[in-house]
Design a protein that fits this description.
alpha/beta; Rossmann fold; P-loop_NTPase; Cytidylate_Kinase-2; 199 residues; single chain; Adenylate kinase; 2 domains
Length: 199
C-alpha cells in the first residue's frame, strides 16, 4: 500500500490543501506532523476586508514557505493571485472534494457562529455582518454556492495531470483526493497517524 504522504528525500512534508473545508484537516495534520499550518486567508485579507495587492501577497506566501524549511501545511486556493507557487513547492497536494450537501451546512453553521461572536474570523479584523452574509454577492455562502462546480472542475483537471496513479505527468504525481462522505478522509488520516507512529 502506498504511503499516505510522499514528502521529500529528507522526510519533510510541504502539504497544500485545496478544495473545500480544509481548516479542520490542516489543523489535524499540523498537529500530527508537528509542522506549521499557514492559511492563505490570513495572508490575503487585511482588517476590514482589505485585499493585499497580488505582488505583495505572493511575496508573503513565498516568505511563509521559506521561513519554514522543515515543512508546512498551506490551505487555500488563490491561484489567480499566486499561480502555481504553492503547488510547485508542495510535496503533497490534498484535494478535499466532499459533496456539496455535506460541506455547505458546515460552512453555514460556522458562518452563523462567527456572526454571533462564537467563531474566529478568517483573518484578524475581518468580521462579517448579517447583511454581508445573507444579502451580498461577496458572502462566503454565495461564494460556496456559485463556485462549487468551478472548484470541482479545476480539481478534476489537476487530478488528470498530477493525480497519484492517474496523472499524465508521471514525474510530478503528488495529488490525492480523499473523497466521499467522510469515511475515506477519516481512513486516510488514520493512515497518516500510523505512518507518524512508525517513524
Amino acid at each position: 500500500m502506498e504511503r499516505p504522504l510522499i514528502g521529500d528525500s529528507q522526510g519533510r512534508y510541504r502539504i497544500h490543501i485545496v478544495g473545500n473545508c480544509g481548516d479542520t484537516v490542516a489543523k489535524k495534520l499540523s498537529q500530527l506532523l508537528d509542522i506549521p499550518y499557514i492559511t492563505l486567508d490570513s495572508l490575503f485579507w487585511r482588517p476590514n476586508w482589505e485585499q493585499t495587492p497580488d505582488a505583495e501577497f505572493k511575496a508573503l506566501v513565498s516568505k511563509a514557505m521559506n521561513d519554514n524549511p522543515n515543512g508546512w501545511i498551506i490551505d487555500g486556493n488563490y491561484q489567480r493571485q499566486v499561480g502555481e507557487l504553492v503547488q510547485n513547492s508542495a510535496t503533497d497536494i490534498i484535494w478535499l472534494d466532499p459533496p456539496f450537501v455535506l460541506y455547505f451546512p458546515r460552512v453555514f453553521v460556522r458562518t452563523i457562529l462567527r456572526l454571533i461572536g462564537l467563531g474566529t474570523p478568517c483573518s484578524p479584523g475581518c468580521n462579517e455582518s448579517f447583511r454581508e452574509v445573507f444579502f451580498s454577492r461577496n458572502s462566503i455562502l454565495c461564494w460556496c454556492w456559485c463556485d462549487h462546480q468551478e472548484r470541482r472542475n479545476h480539481g478534476r483537471n489537476r487530478m488528470k495531470e498530477i493525480g497519484l496513479g492517474v496523472g499524465s505527468d508521471i514525474e510530478n504525481r503528488r495529488m490525492r483526493r480523499p473523497g466521499g462522505w467522510g469515511k475515506e478522509l477519516g481512513e486516510w488520516i488514520k493512515r497518516v497517524e500510523t505512518m507518524v507512529r512508525g517513524k
